[in-house]
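Components:
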Amino acid sequence: MSDERPSALISRAEWHRPAIRIGIGGAQALLLVVLIVVGLGPILWLAKSAITPTNDTITHPMGLFTHGAAWSNLREAWVNVNVGRYFWNTIVVALGSWLTQIVVASTGGYALSVLRPRYARLINALLLATLFVPAIVLLVPLYIEIVRPPIVHHSFIDTYWAVWLPAGASAFNVVLVKRFFDNLPREIFEAARIDGAGPFALFTRIVLPMSKPILGVVSVFAVLASWKDFLWPLLVLTDPNKQPLSVRLPSIASQTSLGVFLAAMFIACLVPIAGFLIFQRSFLSGPGLGGAIKG
Amino acid sequence: MNAISEVEVEGAALARRRHRVRLTPLRWFRGGGLSTFLFMLPLLLVFGAFSWYPIVRTGVMAFQHTNLVQAPAWVGWQNFSAVVHDPQTPIAVKNTAYFALLALVFGYPIPLAAAVLMSEVRKRRGLYSALAYLPVVIPPVVAVLLWKTFYDASSNGVFNTILGWIGLGPYPWLQSPHWAMPSLVLESTWANAGATVIIYLAALTGVNSELYEAAAVDGAGVWRKVWNVTLPQLRGVLLVTMILQIIGTAQVFLEPYLFTSGGPANATLTVLLQIYNYAFGNSLGGNYGKATALSLMLAGFLTVFSFIYLRATRSWSQE
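Structure:
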């Protein structure tokens, strides 16, 4: 996706023809306008309405600050509607889910790719098999398991463990990390072993430092996925004081005025949008998506 | 003949003995087996508890009556037949198929056309893809609730205001059984199309530019090159995105749940919403057996469908 790639479909000679330049160039300009309106428009509207008095948004949704701004919406959402608390809950949920995903994917990927015990093939096959099972199959039994865990006999409902631990079971992460480890040069591992490095030293001093790019990608997607998650935290976190923002938003809608609700929604978007702008390359060069397609 | 087989048997026994020697706990420990196992442990525990075990458990629960109060009782195929005879089930299946079909009609050609056009942008291609991807990073709950505001049926709703400028509407959107489902699909397409665009853009960089040159030598214009080079070169990716989209839309939940709760008049009741209602919709206690039975039926259908799809398109995708 480098911008320097010479256009292939339309050759340089064709670009010199006026019909092409106007036709394709016009279509591209139109596409840019459509993308701005469709991609950016709703978010800009949300940003505008988050600081517009409720009455103005209801009567003139497309008006621009006809009666001035209402910055109080944001404060009211953060303080009175407890968005501050739910925001913090979202961060707690996201960080815990991130941690389990990173631990499981990096240690598991290391064992499967570098240490390779006899049973690695079996575990690999079981992991790949889970990729083909639709997520819906897990929902009900997983819920029962959280309510009535088999060995522990203590319900995990309303504890963050109920979200953190199942988040680690992402076969996609493990496959992504394992594939990255597979491509690390084996000579370095051999050299480290000859220098007396055991499996732990090899992992912490050689493999992890070399894997920052892939661990970064997994981290970004882990945090974003957990920020987006709705149904699972809705089921296992029933105490409103523990619920993350995405779970609270539908209830907030009925509890408060439209302006404050839109301010709460705007706050919920800030972290994902900031993360996207900072880590654009991870999203748009699509290692996760491309990898999924290539299977 | 006999002698040879005896030697073979002896050889096999020897190999087996050697095999056994290699597996003694001490040897295993000295060979780093324990530390390897410790590295594998987080994966085994997490996947065992939260992936493999629940998958197996689904198969058991579908044949039981479980409500978390009484001990589970085996009921044979009763859950399945209860689901099949539930008058809501055909409605849910029909609506899900309708959602999937509409999502294909709206959501399949648009990302492809956008990606082909974007891949030929000579300046600021990054801006194009960032704008296209932006809706994907918005939390889905926010996206749905925001669009619910847009769909406000009064003449002061956002969409009705905009359409009012050109003299259209007001439309009832989510409140009309006829328009509710297309409204859901429209939001879903908005929320997901960007991800597909990025996949196509990546695939387009893999198209061999010599094919374009060869086509140009043969006198092909831009349209001909798109039809005869670009699309055939992308067909592998196109087939995969289509089946992934069908599998994804068959499991649509968030849109019907948050937009309409399945209404109006069951017009947006989908299979996943039905599963949710079986398990969690009843405050008196969930019917987990029926929920798992229906989810197994959906998963089974998707597996069979994907298998047939991949078999049917195999010759075409590898041509």
